[in-house]
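User: quick one, sequence for these tokens?
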């Protein structure tokens, strides 16, 4: 399994919004999950560009980073809304499982007629790539970027 130092990284499939950060990029979504914060898109939209970029750039890998990141997100949301964001009781982090390909990834691959992933391919993806496929594969997500990400990650 490849390890990933969590730093600023945007995927090509996010190109349509990274210039203005109107949507929450995967790197920020990963970091939010790491500190168990559910940030609403409406709250994200209230942040200025510099704050959004900083959320992508701040470290969030080690326990002290995760704690500091969570405090910073809470302070930003409070600043604009007078409320703290929701806390996730738990995070279903199936992207960290390298012994089994998550069902949502298999189902979304089938839905978009993408080739079935092998365990070797799944294990060789970087953590953030596996995270993106899981998030794009979840129900409730429109998923249009799933086949684009699949291709970007060299799986087609």
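Assistant:
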């Amino acid at each position: 399994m490849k390890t990933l130092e969590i730093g600023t990284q945007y995927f090509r499939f996010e190109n349509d919004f990274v210039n203005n950060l109107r949507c929450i990029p995967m790197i920020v979504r990963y970091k939010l999950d790491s500190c168990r914060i559910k940030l609403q898109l409406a709250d994200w939209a209230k942040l200025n560009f510099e704050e959004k970029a900083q959320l992508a750039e701040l470290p969030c890998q080690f326990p002290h980073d995760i704690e500091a990141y969570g405090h910073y997100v809470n302070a930003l949301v409070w600043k604009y809304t007078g409320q703290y964001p929701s806390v996730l009781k738990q995070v279903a982090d199936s992207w960290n499982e390298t012994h089994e390909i998550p069902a949502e990834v298999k189902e979304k691959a089938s839905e978009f007629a993408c080739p079935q992933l092998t365990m070797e391919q799944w294990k060789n993806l970087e953590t953030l790539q596996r995270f993106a496929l899981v998030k794009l594969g979840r129900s409730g997500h429109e998923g249009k970027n799933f086949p684009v990400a699949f291709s970007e990650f060299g799986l087609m």
